[in-house]
C-alpha cells in the first residue's frame, strides 16, 4: 500500500520538510501498528546504508537541490558501525508519542490514541508533526 509521509517541525517557516512516498508492507490497524511499521522500515533502511565512503566525495548540483528539500545535505552513508536495534527504536518512538513529542495525522484527522482502530487507504497523506522544546534563560 502506497502512502505519503510528511514531516513538519513546529516553529519552522516552511510548511513541510519532506513529502515522501512510502510503501507499507502491512495494513496497519492502529496507530501503534503504523508507528511500528514506519520505524521498522526506517531502521532497516538505515542499517542497509553503506559504511564506507567513496574515495572522492562529491554531490552534483541536482543531488544537492534534492537534499536541500529534505532538510539535510549528506553523502548517504553512515559512519557508525553499530546497527540500530529495531525493538529499541520502536519502543522509543512509542514513548515519544505518549510523552507528546510528536503528533500523527491521517489526511486532516489527528490520531489521538495508540490502540484505537485506524483506517488508512491507498494514497493517504500521513503527517508527523514534531514538537521542539524551547530553550533559553529565565530573566
Automatic annotation (TrEMBL):
Protein name (record): Uncharacterized protein
Organism: Fredinandcohnia quinoae
Amino acid at each position: 500500500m502506497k502512502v505519503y509521509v510528511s514531516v513538519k517541525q513546529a516553529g519552522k517557516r516552511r510548511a513541510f520538510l519532506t513529502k515522501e512516498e512510502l510503501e507499507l508492507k502491512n495494513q496497519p490497524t492502529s496507530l501503534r501498528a503504523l508507528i511500528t511499521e514506519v520505524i521498522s522500515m526506517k531502521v532497516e533502511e538505515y542499517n542497509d546504508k553503506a559504511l564506507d565512503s567513496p574515495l572522492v566525495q562529491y554531490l552534483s548540483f541536482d543531488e544537492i537541490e534534492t537534499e536541500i528539500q529534505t532538510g539535510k545535505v549528506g553523502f548517504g552513508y553512515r559512519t557508525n558501525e553499530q546497527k540500530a536495534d529495531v525493538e529499541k527504536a520502536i519502543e522509543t518512538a512509542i514513548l515519544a508519542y505518549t510523552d507528546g513529542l510528536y503528533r500523527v495525522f491521517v489526511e486532516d484527522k489527528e490520531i489521538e490514541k495508540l490502540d484505537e482502530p485506524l483506517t488508512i487507504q491507498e494514497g493517504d497523506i500521513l503527517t508527523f508533526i514534531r514538537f521542539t522544546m524551547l530553550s533559553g534563560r529565565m530573566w
